[in-house]
Give the backbone structure.
Amino acid sequence: MSRSKSDSGKKPVKIRPPSPKTAPRQTAGRSLSCEPPTKSIIQRRTQSLPSPSERRRLSRRASVRFVDSLGLDLENVKVFKSGEDPFVPEHVLFRLLMNAELSSSKRMEISLPYLKPMFSVQPGDCSDFTERLCCQQVCLERVLCYEPGIIGIVQVVNLAFEKEVSVRYSFTNWKSCSETKAYWVASKSFTNGPCCDTFRFHLPVPPFILHPGAVLEFAICYK
């Protein structure tokens, strides 16, 4: 076969295959990706069971506290020691004595060893008590003697809404005296008598006063 001039004038073109390239090295601990590394969302926790001593300590921590709408405590815990007499508030003892007298057919009287009323009949049990109350506007109704002192019950005629009752007392035949305030207890109406208010007062008796011949005198003032 004959070659043409155009074919004889062209030189063959050499083709070189691509050279093999090594994979890029990755830096330890770093990723070429822009996305943050993924983390496992499953976490395992292990905890040993508490010992019996720890359970007792935890159970002692649990407590209940009762409070009112203002956050104040509703209870008052008092721990009494062996041989210690509990303290009874005055108003509690007063109500107990009054309820005992009202519920009993016989008038109950608790007298101190050396101090007791000079009258055998309580003024409120006298037949002329209502008459004297209308005349004097104020009258002693009852005296209760007990260990911490004396409680007196006073009836006053309801002349005004605001009223004040005080008691002046003396252990020295009025050479010296003290004064205390009586507190309102309740309202009371007598049959065929005026509308009255009941007041209560307490006279403390010091222990050194309780000796033979000791005398307590008091006077009631109504304003």
User: Anything to note?
Assistant: Helices lie at 5-9, 52-61, 90-103, 129-136. Residues 105-112 have pLDDT under 50 and may be disordered. Residues 90-222 form a domain with the Immunoglobulin-like fold (CATH 2.60.40.2440).
